[in-house]
Amino acid sequence: ISRISHIKTTSALYYVLASLDREDFHCDDLLIQNNLGRPCEFLSSNLLIVKDGELFSPGRGEGAVDGTYINYLKLNLNLKYRALSISEVRDADGVFRTNAVSGIERVELLS
């Protein structure tokens, strides 16, 4: 996590390399972890989980890009920002990716 990790840029080598890994693994997307090993976002979407009827997302403090759609959800739903663990994501009642182009998409996690 750095002071600028939440800023969208056009030259993010980390995301380019992760995208190549996504192609190698033949999957639709990858869950990105921050430098503390916690999930923070997908390649081009924010991470959102549902647990016991509540909505959670890692947010900027965990290194996630400050996405337009996740901000919309924060303003219109009772979305809480906090650090998430990999086990919390795996055990969630629902895992979703959100962005301004696709809206909200349910995600099936594979290992």
Q: Round the Cα radius of gyration to an integer and report it.
A: 13 Å
Q: Globular, elongated, flat, extended or rod-shaped: what is the shape?
A: globular
- The fraction of residues assigned to DSSP E strands is 25-35%
Query: How many E strands?
Result: 7
Biggest pleated-sheet summary: 5 strands, mixed
Helix-strand sequence: HEEEEHEHEE
Largest beta sheet: strand ordering: 5-4-3-6-7
* N-end to C-end Cα span: 24 Å
Query: Number of DSSP helices?
Result: 3
Give the overall average pLDDT.
85
Q: Indicate the percent of residues in helices.
A: 10-25%
Extract low-pLDDT stretches. none
Decide which structural class fits the backbone.
alpha+beta
Oligomer: single chain
What does this structure look like?
This protein has 111 residues and is an alpha+beta fold. The protein contains three helices and seven strands, in the order H-E-E-E-E-H-E-H-E-E. The chain has a five-stranded mixed sheet with strand order 5-4-3-6-7, with helices on one face. Strands 1-2 form a two-stranded antiparallel sheet. A hairpin with a 5-residue loop joins strand 1 and strand 2 (39-42).
Q: Brief overview, please?
A:
The chain is built from three helices and seven strands. The chain has helices spanning 13-24, 68-76, 86-90; strands spanning 31-33, 39-42, 46-51, 54-57, 79-81, 94-99, 103-106.
Walk me through the topology:
Elements: H1 13-24, E1 31-33, E2 39-42, E3 46-51, E4 54-57, H2 68-76, E5 79-81, H3 86-90, E6 94-99, E7 103-106
Parallel strand pairs: 4-5
Antiparallel strand pairs: 1-2, 3-4, 3-6, 6-7
